[in-house]
Amino acid sequence: MFRIHRRLEPGQYRLTEVFADIRSCGILPAIFADAEEIDRVMANTKVFVVDQPYEMYVDNNDASITIGLTHLRRASDEFLYLDIIHELCHVKQHLQGRNLYDRSRAYVDRETEIEAFRVTVQEARRIGLNDDAIANYLHVSWITPEEHKRLARILDVGGSLDA
After folding, report:
1. Are 136 and 121 in contact (CB under 8 A)?
2. pTM, full prediction
3. N or C, which end of the chain has less CB nearby within 10 Å?
4. Per-residue pLDDT of the chain (163 residues; tens, 9 = 90+)
């Protein structure tokens, strides 16, 4: 896939310092308007590695990306790759002025999440993940089993949903 610098200490980094080959991802033109926008995002997106129990998220105020240290060190290459693609979708949404955290809807029903997950699921299939692996990827700790099933249904992901 691409190089991920997993041994970073907590701190602030450029996107390419964490995900060295991110520019070579063929999915970026499907997320961003053009090469200029990709260049701006690569140059301006700050990444914070924190020693907190987070996975990965985008700050709604400045579109910086936060990655939990344990997640960076222990998640599979495929899941970290899919996570950064998902979060870059949120960076794009932020650039469009959209609210990433609409609390009036459940996480799995937010338009911004569904859009980002659609791109991520498409990329997961392209890199060879089957529906079981994708269903596993969609299972995050902050959603219920029912929400997990609903998200998989929305995204047309089959596989084992007993995660």
Report:
1. no
2. 0.92
3. N
4. 679 999 999 999 999 999 998 988 889 999 999 999 999 999 999 999 999 988 999 999 999 999 999 999 999 999 999 999 999 999 999 999 999 988 898 888 999 999 999 999 999 999 999 999 999 999 888 888 899 999 999 999 986 655 4
Residues 157, 131: contact at Cβ < 8 Å? yes
Whether the CA torsion 123, 127, 128, 129 is positive or negative: it is negative
Contact 119, 27 (CB under 8 A): yes
Of 98, 111, 110, give the one whose Cα is nearest residue 143. 110
Selection from 42, 18, 22 nearest residue 92 by Cα: 42
CA distance 106 to 49: 27
Rounded to the nearest 5°, which phi and psi values hold at 45?
A: -80, 120
| Cβ atoms of 57 and 49 closer than 8 Å | no
